[in-house]
User: What shape does this take?
Amino acid sequence: MALRTAALAAGEIRSLALRGFLPALLFHTVVLGLSPGATVSRLSRLRTANGAPVALEQAAIPTRFLPEPAAVTGSVREELRRRGFSPFRALQRLTAVRLTAEQAAQLCVPEGVAALSGERRIMLEDGTPLEFARSQYRGDAHDFIVELNLAGGGRLAEVHR
Assistant: This one.
């Protein structure tokens, strides 16, 4: 499946990041398959396109894959590949939400404006969890296009609420 957004297609994407090394939250131990007491590299990014903020992202990566998050100056995925950990498969869920006051302020839009909230899990080829991320995408700046390739025996799942 290929996924791209209009914001990515429209121009250059830049990330402003806060990077840190912290104990994994209980939630991270579950979604990343970690032992209690494990540590993760946490990254918070404000993504911009052509100078305008378009998305917020909070990611957690086990420190065995990314032990020095503060040293990453470019693409996190490229750094993971350089270290021998190539992302192979991802599962992302998108849900319509309204932005909180804090999120809206960071994205320069009014509080309560519609947005897309995403949760993404990235795995290595052997299925080992590599990254968990939560994102909030400005609704007026993103247009998601999804290509589904089911020829390889994949499944398409739809959830109705």
Remarks:
- Strands lie at 2-5, 13-23, 39-49, 52-62, 89-98, 114-123, 129-138, 144-147.
- The chain has four helices and eight strands.
- The chain has one domain: 2-147.
